[in-house]
Design brief:
about 290 residues; Rossmann fold; 9 strands; elongated; GlmZ(SRNA)-inactivating NTPase; ATP binding
Length: about 290
Amino acid sequence: MKFVIVSGLSGAGRTQAVRCLEDLGYFCVDNLPPTLIPKFAEACSKTFGKINKVALVIDIRGGEFFDDVFNSLNYLKEENYKYDILFLEADDDILIKRYKESRRKHPLAQEGRIIEGINIEREKLSQIRDRADNIINTSKLSIWELRDKISEIYGEIGQIETEIMVTVLSFGFKYGIPVDSDLVFDVRFLPNPYYVPELKKYSGLDKPVSDYVLAFEETNIFTKKLIDLLEYLIPRYKKEGKRQLIISIGCTGGRHRSVTIADRVYKMLDHKGFYVNVQHRDIDEDANRSVKKL
């Protein structure tokens, strides 16, 4: 079992660091009183490997409990628990700017100047900084650059966190556009199998419907242009630090055209090596509502 102790100055990026570690598969606990670390370590050891990577945020919010941090770290060492200390800091002017932009008070400067709180905090954290295995100054780092640094240090080779998870989602406009959509494409311009009596009962996953939809020239032109667009966009979303992309494809009821196109796009992206899955939100919605009416 491995522990990462995350500490550092307020405003230096602890929250983003923890989010990154969580994406890397770490079980994260924010603001755990250091005196509870031994008990928490014992509890994790009893999960039989289900929890084997833990990140604990320890900082001055622990108040008087913070002084127990070194006793707890000594316990981890004596019990042969592996741990690293990750310390985040930033220059004074950057920290002051961040606090002014967020309009939050520094936890150690409730009645005074921000710089006074920063100086007190630096002093309180000086010992844990001296023992840190990794120190990251975030003054000139974007959120995504910080994530990349943490991934380089604590991520495993080939870990999926470095990829962007693409979900291709079919839906019906009459049931509403999915609220978590990043990109929405309307395929209601395609011929509708719903109006072909022998196809109406099938869905876009059934061969008769998919063959019908994919037989039209406009379908193939559209899917080719859409794939070209997505091949351009996905790497750029990834570069900006986006970890999940929802591509919603809609038709009227979400059962025929959108399902066929979404499935087609999913297979094409998968073939090109993207980390992708497909979901059909409304594929059975019409049938379910008809049953409820009965």
